[in-house]
Amino acid sequence: MTEDLPELRASDTDRERVAEILRDALTEGRLAMEEFDERLEAAYKARTYGELEPLTADLPAAAQAPAPLSLRKESGAPARWAERIVSGGQGSSVGFSLMSGFQRKGRWTIGRRFTAACVMGGGEIDLREANFAGPEVVISCWVLMGGVNIVVPPGVEVDVRGLGIMGGFDAREDGTPGEPGAPRVVVTGLALMGGVGVERKLPRAERRRLKEERRRLKEDGRKELD
Hints:
The protein is α/β, with parallel strands linked by helices and 226 residues long. The protein has helices at 12-27, 33-45, 49-56, 60-64, 69-72, 79-82, 204-225; strands spanning 92-98, 101-104, 109-110, 113-119, 122-126, 131-132, 136-144, 147-152, 157-160, 163-165, 168-169, 184-192, 195-200.
């Protein structure tokens, strides 16, 4: 089923399903620890079914596994996104730095419009654990000899429209489709002799869980060898 929809966004449930197949393959001796680590990391970073499919294509468990759960869910916003889009949230918010820096990270709420102004300074806008004041937020970046870095979690759609003069806007994440119900982040503004970057990272809790999972599996592997 997934080979016909390679560009369809994968859900957390789909990624966890692949991770479980990989764990079983490691236990059965079908994968070495190094290859397991590489595939597991790729699974948690995967955005689409097309990226998940090759990770288990050579494993027999994948042939008997049920179709990805997200294909069988009813339409509508997944609960994890619906809970993070705050109805009636603040309309606007601001971050400013002058020869210094500002940070917005952790659990916070970004307004429907966020203005970042940096003059010979920098700013970090981390949305991995943030709530959103609406289904679409616009981040306007005005940079002079400085920079702004925006971090978004997997599943969020990003639309980069900014203009760089002797500087630039990083558009690598531009146009990537989002998960159903996920918020949309529009990045606009002007960077003069500076830059605005957008990168996609796993939430810290997920990264810690992945690290702990690797540690536990390595310990289990050593015990089996003993």
